[in-house]
Amino acid sequence: IGRDLLAGLIAAIAAIPDGMASAVLAGVNPVFGLYNLMVGTPVAALFSSSVYMAVINTSAMALVVNSALAGYTDVDQQTSALVVLTILVGAFQLLLGVLKLGYLTRFISNSVMTGFLTGIAVIIILGQLGDFTGYSAEGNNKVAQTIDLLMNLDQIDLYTLAAGMLTLVLIVVLDRTRLSPVSMLIGLLAATLLVNGLDWESVVLVGDTAEIPNSFPIPTLPDLSLIPEMIVPAVAIGIIGLIQASGVSQGFPNPDGKTPDASGDFRGQGLGNIAAGIFSGLPIGGSLSGTALVVKAGAQSRWANVFTGIFVALGVLLFAGLIEMLPMTALAAILIYAGYQTIKPQKIRAVWNTNTLSRVVMSVTFILTLFLPVQQAVFVGVALQVILYVY
User: Fold this and answer.
1) Strands, DSSP E only, in the chain?
2) Distance of CA 326 to CAs 41, 195, 217, 320, 356, Å?
3) What is the DSSP secondary structure assignment for residue 177, as one 8-state letter?
4) Residues 175-233: tens digit of each pLDDT
5) What angle do CA 334, 290, 359 make, to 5 degrees?
6) Burial 350-362 (b: 16+ CB within 10 A, else e)
7) Measured between alpha carbons, how far is residue 280 from residues 16, 219, 268, 269, 346 in Å?
8) Which is nearest to 90 in space by CA: 280, 277, 287, 291?
């Protein structure tokens, strides 16, 4: 149990800044990226077939949440929509698990998934350039906004850029050392000390955008009238989470040496998301990097991920005031680095060298992901997958 406690603590230290950054990516209060870890992660850990799988925030899922909640400007309405969305994601995943449809993950095309995940990574990077530079770009999509930023470099806030660059450099350097598990936390703290110590008022802080309560989340009943408009993005998010989790379970066998049952992982993620939704949390899914960290930290059982949620809860209770002092540009730096890590040149080359059809499918999926709303790109990718399998 001692090694599980240590692994849970290390995972929580890494998950807290990542969770807040995911919430920023989703366009909601940063604390919602911690509520799901406090509740959903332990529930998923207890009920998933995979012993080690860390069910936490993922950038791809957060990006679809952003698109789904884009029309909600009122904070209360946005929170109500998030509750319904996360619960629906969980219900969809639980249904697939109960129906034992985990075998469907065997038919996932590398070309479709590589194109989609690479496109998601590029969108994540481009989407954070505004917070990273302090310039609010205009445009219909992230590509257009990036072009607008490049044409207005003279309007960048240098203090914001400096704090963001400090965070990014520290993460990149420390990620190559033994301090890798806490590299994001060190980068965040360094930027926070710099901005608040030198009183750089032009740098936007988390507290300027949202209030972080130092208390446990309160259960919330879903607004049933929002279900119809949340079904499509919920299915899209559910598919992304299940696909990402299938890669995790294949890469990390259980202690008995057996590969986890995919349907069991579906059920665990579904129950975790239902629990997270009731407490206003973001949707969560199996994370390859999070699972690798837990295993590397010495996890012996599923209790390591349960302890992760407990330590995150303690962090929110004890350090809510510090969270409000974090610079938004530092969270943007974390997301930029996460997006960079998502790009896998080796997989791209493997698909490119397979055949002409694989190259075309990967390229089309990548381009559509850049320019279409993310949930639409997911369904286009699924349609391509079906056509390829039939072919």
Assistant:
1) 54-56, 285-287
2) 24, 9, 21, 10, 47
3) S
4) 888 888 788 888 989 999 999 999 998 998 888 877 777 778 889 899 999 999 999 99
5) 80
6) ebeeeeeebeebb
7) 16, 8, 18, 16, 38
8) 277
